[in-house]
Amino acid sequence: MQNVSHFSERLQFLLTDIDDTLTDEGLLGPEAYTALWQLHEAGIHVIPVTGRPAGWCEMIARVWPVSGIVGENGGFYFRYHGKKMHRHFFFDEKTQSENRKKLNALEKEILQKVPGCDLASDQFCRLMDLAIDFCEDVPALPRTEVQKIVDIFHSHGAQAKVSSIHVNGWFGAYDKLTMSLKFLQKEFSVTADEAKKVCGFSGDSPNDEPMFAYFPHSFAVANIQNFIDQIKNKPTYVTQQRGGLGFTEIANAILKQK
């Protein structure tokens, strides 16, 4: 990984994680929010790509200076454009309902078998996945207990990704990268190959690894070091500062190339 100051390419899009990439201790600070506006005003499309739920994504797509959002680790994207909210889901409503029944059963098993974890507080506004909190609103669990949650999801044929705060599990062959590429193609006519040239990605945790692996212009904030031994495909660039201040470093490096 190189310091972000070495970045020297021109980008049209910046896809970015939210938790602990844009935020610090759960809060969006003024530096990162200002950086979002500066990117927007410079004509760079910012697209959050997050594990956060549909309810959050509806608000973010409408209110933040972004060109759309990929939510629940790739279960859907929302784009508020032309005074209309455009929503694209990986599964139809029938399949979503069937998957929810299986996830409800998994919720009971995980909470019973892994003491100390809890249902994520934002679960009530999720449509596609199950989020288990291991350190956001509960005392942090050791890595071995987090892995138990992952293993239970896998034992039922579900996917599971570890973010900086949750383990997200779902049924279906999608992830952050799958839906991001679909979003770029459908909404901006950017092909998968073109995306490697014109897009960057910023993140901070293992569930961002598909994005780090795909995009040559990949960035991580300094707190990636908390998970670096769990990530095989590392980002190209890393910031000196954590969270939102690190994101601001990334934004400034991109804006210098405009």
Q: Would you write up a description of this structure?
A:
There is one protein chain. The chain has helices at 30-41, 54-63, 93-113, 143-155, 176-188, 192-198, 209-214, 243-255; strands spanning 2-3, 13-16, 23-24, 27-28, 45-48, 69-71, 76-81, 84-89, 118-119, 130-133, 159-162, 166-170, 199-203, 218-220, 237-238. A six-stranded parallel beta sheet has the order 1-15-14-13-2-5. A four-stranded antiparallel beta sheet has the order 9-10-12-11. With 258 residues, it is α/β, with parallel strands linked by helices. The protein starts with a strand and ends with a helix. Helix 1 (30-41) runs parallel beside helix 8 (243-255). It is 37% helix and 21% strand. It has eight helices and 15 strands.
Helix amount: 25-40%
Low-confidence spans: pLDDT under 50, at least 5 residues?
none
Strand order of the largest sheet: 1-15-14-13-2-5
Q: What is the end-to-end distance?
A: 23 Å
Q: Strand tally, please?
A: 15
Work out the strand percent. 15-25%
Q: Which oligomeric form is depicted?
A: single chain
Based on Cα principal axes, name the global outline: globular
